[in-house]
Design a protein that fits this description.
heterodimer, A: 65 residues, 4 helices, 71% helix, B: 282 residues, mainly beta, six-stranded antiparallel beta sheet, 6% helix
Chain lengths: 65, 282
């Protein structure tokens, strides 16, 4: 059973990886679009969790990068 | 192709069968004295990676998929030299291992003492017999305490249900700290987990169990140590010639994901570690 906390960390790390691979320094619309395209289709992750993660993505990504 | 004589190596070098790659890492956190740190997640070159994959599912690492230190396209090659330089004397000497990162299980939750089962959707693609393959725990979310944990794994002979020694985590709060790394705490592992008596390697991980719950997250990474070196001072680079100093050139397998871990002897922040590796093939 994967917890929301684990899934949130996965989303944040994936966003950070996208930013590193594409030399993006701050969260922008490309990063948001990437997260939505990558995670909305995953049925095991609720849209509410994705929205909640996106609301603090800039802060959380800084901790990873 | 494997080398049989030193003459072959000299001829290969004369023929230009080498690859030299410059790497540079600059941590944006303060790495604590005596705590091993994973430079693969550190800003710089090569581009960092963050173990970003499905929680607790085995995920392969490779040069073609994740980049890492460049080592050329030859299928069979050897590490000839490494050079390490730095800009800050405050953390010398810094012990360093060059690793081939093979497989990882990300985002293991420290918030439960239940047995957490890994999903083995992928297997080792290099060192497939598991001999010499080690387990490294990397912090992915800050913890508050110092919980003990064990790992159930399949050993180098394919025997499942083997169990590591119970190891204690540190409470470093930055991502990339090797979770079991400590200077003086009993039952830390520094930096690879101790396997069950008699085992020499790991093929896969089945589950993880924490003795007490905490708030952190960590990844378990299966790695093959390739080489060891030391960053000693800022006035001269530390160069290691593996033929002269080791008498043997470590093999680097095709599509290996190469990167460093480092253990600074002093707070390591706002400074740069850089260097190069030279690879040769015959």
């Amino acid at each position: 059973m994967i917890s929301d906390r684990q899934n949130q960390a996965w989303i944040v790390a994936s966003a950070a990886q996208f930013m590193a691979n594409n030399e993006i320094e701050t969260v922008n619309s490309d990063v948001i679009d990437f997260v939505l395209e990558e995670f909305v289709p995953k049925k095991e992750i609720s849209n509410e969790l994705i929205e909640e993660t996106l609301s603090s993505l800039a802060t959380e990504v800084e901790k990873v990068m | 192709m494997a080398y049989a004589t030193f003459k072959e190596l000299v001829e290969a070098e004369d023929a230009g069968k080498t690859c030299t790659y410059y790497w540079r890492k600059a941590p944006n956190v303060t790495v604590t004295q005596g705590i091993w740190y994973d430079l693969s997640i550190t800003p710089g070159m090569p581009v960092p990676q963050y173990y970003a994959a499905t929680p607790m599912a085995a995920t392969q690492m490779s040069y073609s998929g994740d980049r890492g230190i460049v080592h050329g396209n030859a299928t069979s090659k050897y590490l000839r030299e490494t050079t390490v330089m730095g800009t800050n004397n405050s953390h010398v000497p810094t012990n360093m291992y060059l690793l081939d990162y093979l497989l990882y299980y990300p985002f293991i939750d420290e918030g439960t003492t239940d047995v957490q089962t890994m999903t083995n959707v992928s297997a080792l693609s290099r060192y497939t017999d598991g001999k010499g393959v080690k387990i490294m725990a990397v912090t992915q979310g800050a913890r508050a305490g110092t919980p003990y944990f064990t790992v159930s794994y399949t050993n180098q002979d394919g025997v499942a249900g083997r169990t590591t020694v119970s190891h204690r985590m540190n409470n470093e709060i930055y991502n990339g700290a090797i979770s079991t790394s400590n200077r003086s705490t009993a039952d830390s592992a520094n930096p690879f987990l101790s396997l069950q008596s008699g085992d020499t390697g790991v093929r896969s991980i089945q589950s993880v169990t924490l003795a007490t719950s905490d708030v952190g997250l960590f990844a378990l990474v299966l790695v093959k140590p390739i080489a060891q070196t030391v960053y000693r001072e800022i006035t001269a680079p530390s160069q290691k010639d593996y033929l002269l100093h080791n008498g043997v050139l470590p093999e680097i397998q095709n599509d290996a994901y190469l990167n460093w871990i480092a253990c600074p002897n002093g707070a390591f922040s706002a400074s740069v570690l850089q260097g190069d590796i030279k690879v040769i093939w015959t």
